[in-house]
Each structure stands twice: as structure tokens, then as C-alpha cells.
Amino acid sequence: MDLLLTLADQSADDVRSLYSWLNQDEDLRGRAQLKQAPVPEGKLGSLTDALIVAIGPGGAAVSLASVLISWIRHRTADVEVEASRQDGEKVRVRARRIKSLDVAELKALTDGLAAWAAGQGETPPQLEDPEA
Fold first, then answer.
1. Helix (H) or strand (E) holding 122
2. Which helix (H) or strand (E) holds 36?
3. In angstroms, rounded to a whole number, what is the distance separating the alpha carbons of residues 47 and 49?
4. How many whole angstroms separate alpha carbon 23 and alpha carbon 40?
5. S-S: 115 plus which of 34, 82, 99, 121, CB 3.0-4.6 Å?
6. Is the pLDDT at 32 greater than 90, yes or no?
7. What distance in Å separates the CA atoms of residue 103 and residue 92, rounded to the nearest whole number?
8. Which pTM value belongs to this model?
């Protein structure tokens, strides 16, 4: 199964940063591909706007969830990542919503996101916005 990861309002450098983090994980090495946006009219080249990650069976979904959440937690600015499964289901994870989570909450988020990514969870994990 492939997942499409897009970063809202982030630069191509941010996409490449996440790509690097994914490829540093033993279970995900070689499973992520940079996805290029179509070349805008009047521009010389395309921009990297997303990642495609092949998670397949096994522990790759757990690794993906762990790496994604770790990457988001290490960002200094707010960041939003949207993950889309091939069946059209989507989930969004925002940095401002997970920075203050404790260990148990992080584990629950990681486990829920991994189950969703592997197609084993019907509903994407949801977080309450503490600012709401």
C-alpha cells in the first residue's frame, strides 16, 4: 500500500527533510519517493510537493508513524502533514497539536496512525486541539 504525504504551506526543503528522515529509518529506507508537482507555466522546473511512501505489510506502518511524528515534533514552526491512503481516506497531523502530548498520548497517536496507514483502522486518529 502506498501513502501520499503532503505538507501544507511548507517549502520543498521541508519535504526533502522529511524524505531524509524517512530514509534514515531501516524499515523505510528506499520506500519513500519524492513526488514532483507539474511545472508551472513560465517556470523552469518543478517543485517537490509531496512524498509517496510504500508501506506494504509488516512494521513499515509503525515505522512511518513513528518517524513522521518525531519529525513533526522536531520542527520549530507549525507544520501540517496530510496522509492519503489509496482508498481516499485522509488524516492530518498538526505540530501545534502534538508538542505537548505525554508518552502515553504519543504512543496512542503513533499506534492509531500506524493502524490507519496499514488500512486496519477505519477512522483516522483524531486529536483535540488544546486551543479550541
1. none
2. strand 32-36
3. 6
4. 28
5. 121
6. yes
7. 20
8. 0.77
* DSSP code, position 39: P
Question: For residue 5, how far is the Cα from the chain centroid?
Answer: 5
Q: Tell me, what's the pLDDT at 36?
A: 74
CA distance 44 to 20: 25
Kind of pairing between the strands at 80-85 and 32-36: unpaired
Question: What pLDDT does 37 receive?
Answer: 65
Site of grid cell 511524528 = 69
- Of 113, 84, 119, nearest in space to 98 by CA: 113
Are the C-beta atoms of residues 49 and 83 closer than 8 Å to each other?
no
* Cβ neighbours, 10 Å, residue 118: 21
Residues whose CB is less than 8 angstroms from the CB of residue 30 and which lie 6 or more positions away in sequence, other chains included: 23
